[in-house]
Amino acid sequence: MGPFDVMFARFPFGRSDDPDVTDWLIGAVVSCKLDPRVGRIANFWINETPITMSRNNAVEAAKADKCHYLVMIDSDMKPDAYVCSNKNRLDTDPSAKPFWDSSWDFILRHRDRGPCMIGAPYCGPPPHENCYIFRWSNFQSDHPNADLRIEQFTREEVVNRSGFEEVCCLPTGLVIIDMRVFDNPLVVPPYFTYEYTDGREQKKASTEDCVFTRDLNIANIPLYVNWDAWAGHWKRKCVGKPKPILREQVHQKFLEAVQNNISGKQKIRCVHPFEADAAAIRNAINGGDDAGVHPTSGDNSDLAGKANGSGFEHESPGPGSSDSGVVEAEPYLFPATTEAPRRGASIGIVSRRSVATTVGGA
After folding, report:
1. Largest CB tally within 10 Å, which of 113, 182, 184, 324?
2. CA distances (Å), 224 to each of 18, 128, 177, 193, 194, in order?
3. Bridge-partner residues for 150, per DSSP?
């Protein structure tokens, strides 16, 4: 497969990128040079406002250069903020993965399924530090008119997520875009623009990244968040990923921890059928003959064709830990939408000794 040409686009406000951006770019370009799947490496930067214009310029530059993929990185990002090999990391998460390596592998496996876009998760500035990842929701059931809204994942929901999850809206501080998305007749310029609450444009309703990625999603182009590749976000402080109150840290009667049921030893991981171990995982779950793999109660085949969202695995630390090797939990499918199902699902509860639950065939 390939090689594919990649453009790296930067937006050095005031002609300055944070040193974390520079360090990450050096590492990403070196990885590209060593990867036979990468052809030409193109560079683009613009020091101009508004950011809507700058991002549109980057897209047109990638088109003109006939690049297959466009990587955008903002000047205030701290990529790979929890990866062990990053000497300037915010903290250490043993399950964290470098954004470029993991996202590049995923987007190439996805290529035969059509174009997509992948983004690194990160949070906004204090005092709220909300997570800039979004999903479709509604206000009520069985409404005769369109009743849709976009809502953010809560801080408590994102802390233990892992893998690649399909979402409806992404931030664009660190993303990789398959340039074929711009061949879709529903994706038209200007791609990046603001939306306002009033005709005089006095107050923003939607920022350019939300407008662009939402419109891609409406055009049926998959958007994925790479939960294993959290980025820091430099504001007056570098905003990292949320740190919840863990159930191991508090007394059982502390209501919030009990309700959240968040453990620092567990992850919820999204797994897709085209990932490397998908077939082996599916066989293990359906057969139940692999160590640590257990089908859930009920008929798993009944779930196939009914799941509209990503498959999840629940991971536990396995032998030698204070927790049991298998997490006793119900399978979890998310998100559920009103669209027709795009894929089936095989569901299982597994330990870290084997890999995990996987989405079924297309």
Report:
1. 182
2. 25, 24, 11, 21, 22
3. 136
Q: Please say whether the dihedral angle defined by the alpha carbons of residues 206, 212, 218 and 221, taken in this order, is positive or negative.
A: negative
User: Can you give the pTM of this predicted structure?
Assistant: 0.73
Q: Which of 332, 115, 106, 136 is nearest to 227 (CA)?
A: 106
pLDDT in tens, 124-149: 999 889 999 999 888 778 777 777 88
Backbone angles phi, psi at 167, to 5 degrees: -130, 180
Q: Tokens 């979890």 correspond to what residue? A: 332
Distance CA 199, CA 181 (A): 30
Q: Which residue has the tokens 């009990």?
A: 258
d(CA 198, CA 202): 7
Q: Choose the most confident range, by mean pLDDT, from 24-38, 135-149, 338-352.
A: 24-38
**Both tokens assigned to 83:** 């990866």
Indicate whether 121 belongs to any domain: yes
Cα separation, 101 vs 340, in Å, equals 32
For residue 193, the domain's CATH number is 3.90.550.40
